[in-house]
Amino acid sequence: MSSISIYESNKRNSSIAGFTSNIFSSNQLIHLYSNHGLLRDAQKLFDEMPHRNVFSWNTIISAYVKAHNLAQAQALFDSASQKDLVSYNSMLSGYVGADDGYETEAIDLFIRMQFVRETVGIDEVTLTTMLNLASKLRVAIYGRQVHSYMVKTGNDGSIHAVSSLIDMYSKCGLFGEAWNVFSGCEGKVDLISKNAMLAACFREGKMDLGLNLFWENLELSDTISWNTLISGYAQNGYGEKSLSMFIQMVQNGVKWDERTLASVVSACSGLKCLELGKSVHAWVLKNGFISNQIISSAIVDLYCKCGNLKYAESVHARIGTNNPFSVASFIAGYSSQGNMKEAQRVFDSLTEKNSIVWTALISGYVKTQQCESVFKLFKDYMTTEALVPDALVFISVLSACAIQAALTMGKQIHAHILRIRLEMNKKLLSALVDMYSKCGNIAYAEKIFHLFTDSDRDAVIYNVMVAGYAHHGFEHEAFRLFQEMLKKNVKPDAVTFIALLSACRHRGLIQLGEQFFRSMEDHNILPESDHYACMVDMYGRANELDKAVEFMRKIPIEMDATVLGAFLNACRVSSNVELAKEVEEKLLKVEANNGARYVQLANVYAAEGNWDEMGRIRKKMRGKEVKKLAGCSWIYLENGVHVFTSGDSSHSKSDAIYTALIYLNEKLHFSSTEYVEDIF
DNA sequence: GTAGGGTTAG
């Protein structure tokens, strides 16, 4: 109604004031139509204008940019009889803000602007728009170049520039640079740049820094600031803090919106808190928020994370869309239940696949240790996907390489990452260190570890390197690095101690192991079953069954198969069949379907020549129809992977292979004899 | 006097 009355008054004005006023009011009206989504009316009015000025052209171009009709915007831009810097900037922001696929056009237009710089010019709007392109592409070198361009042309001072720079550096993985920009303009920080810095802190996992920033100047905060905190905590795995921030937000009388709600749902999923999630779901249904795609896909994710895929399917079906985010949740949900068939099915059902679903499926195959499927999918991803390569995909594939000890593949992926100049973030570097270490190349792992600057070294990367040293038998290096970690005030976590305790158990360093275990309390880390299992295994390997028994008595948590299995091993080493029998019952209660456990049990009895007991276990195994997967070795050749089990003769060239093996064995024998002779 | 650029959700 309001647009009609303005149209009426516009007609009246034009009859009084003539052309200039007519152009002015028409421009305003076009803008108004566009803001209300009435693009046809806007176009009609534009077409009917007897005279237009540069504002008319810019307004109609922007109208099409806003409506995401870039083809039409571009056609108007190309045919416009009057063009100025605003026309260029409007078109540029259209390309940059497009959902996908206009990056080249944006760069081309920016280059063309360099040629008309004398007449049209380039200003801060142009450059902040280009910063957006850099953050969208996550390519820090572009962002840096634009930043220096801004400095050179004196376009880096305004508050618009500051928030864009913070956002760009943060999204490109350069938190330190973002912080430098922020702290370099103290005094004139506004709400938006503060919010950008808050988001940067939480993106980097620096929650305390973000929280301080938030409370320091509470007057300078709005719904977006609160939303940033609530979602930031949820995304970093602090569901409870996220929910308590939401409560504080309500208590402070701050208006919340749909984004707040989406984050609250995601906090519930993180906590696997089905009850609370369900009540939020009910509330969402009652208040009509279910039509919001992001909220409803967050609810789908909630049910998937809680393992209730039936509920998730029904919510998904009711929304009835092709939403890639919900599909990614299903893929993760089915993967965590080991059901890759269903995961693959929902993936295949999606017509338009984004990086998120690719990442979800690939990491699903990694979790279920189906590495060949990972490599095959990765090939498809690289050849069919026109998207910006996602670091998370590379991280997943690198961990598949680590599982398979596929060094050549890992090296190729590393080279590829360098070639496409993917920004090396911490997670990617950690994945590389882990890959090289687990593929047996500790020297390369070390090299990459040293690429981390001191301030970049967090607990995760230290853990990877400490574990790497431990696995390669360099326990002194592992302990040294742990000391360094403490000295640099990096807080060790549960994983750190698993690495340290493993180093001790492999070397029989009982006293040191006990010391590490006790010191966990000083670091406020509660031992988990893996730690207990490490300790039991340590005593077991050192033939200290008494100590293992004593330790077991003190374990305050319910013992799972890892701990019991370690104890069983200790019984085998100390040839104690009686205790083995005791633990057998408990072990088969908690893990009745793991074939490997039966074999382990049978081996304990067999080692003592107790064939009756062994036969009994074998029978038990048959009755339960459990199988143990045969241990195997494999080799990568040009045309793929070849898997061998002991005494395997199924390979088409097995005769030739065994002949070569006999020959190699002889060679090996000779050389090891020579080696021994050298020493003595 | 009108038109273009900055922060938060799955």
UniProtKB/TrEMBL annotation:
Keyword match Electron transport: no
A Pfam family annotated for this UniProt entry: PPR
Keyword vocabulary terms for this entry: Repeat
Entry keyword Repeat: yes
Biological process per Gene Ontology, one example term: plant organ development
Source species, domain of life: Eukaryota
Gene Ontology MF terms: RNA binding
Gene3D superfamilies registered for this protein in UniProt: Tetratricopeptide repeat domain
Protein name: Putative pentatricopeptide repeat-containing protein
Organism: Senna tora
Higher taxonomy: Eukaryota, Viridiplantae, Streptophyta, Embryophyta, Tracheophyta
